[in-house]
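Researcher: We plan to redesign the surface later, but first we want a full-length starting point. Tokens attached.
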């Protein structure tokens, strides 16, 4: 199955250099979870703040469940700090 992964803010560093604003297409297993996909890309789990699949917020406990459908879009943001 294939999904599109979009990483924002400081997480963009975990995408390949050639990734544009549309993120990357990634081949995943049928039972892959959002956290597994992000670990595969090297994104630190403790820095993950906001996770959306097709624009729908995914609560922390659901991030460890296999919930992807083919062609889903996973979008992820870190916690934002600043003043």
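Model: Full-length starting sequence:
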């Amino acid at each position: 199955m294939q999904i599109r992964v979009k990483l924002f803010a400081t997480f963009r560093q975990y995408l390949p250099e050639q990734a544009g604003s549309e993120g990357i297409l990634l081949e995943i297993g049928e039972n892959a979870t959002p956290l597994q996909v992000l670990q595969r890309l090297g994104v630190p789990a403790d820095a993950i703040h906001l996770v959306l699949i097709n624009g729908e917020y995914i609560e922390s406990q659901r991030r460890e469940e296999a919930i992807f459908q083919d062609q889903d879009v996973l979008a992820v943001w870190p916690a934002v700090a600043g003043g």
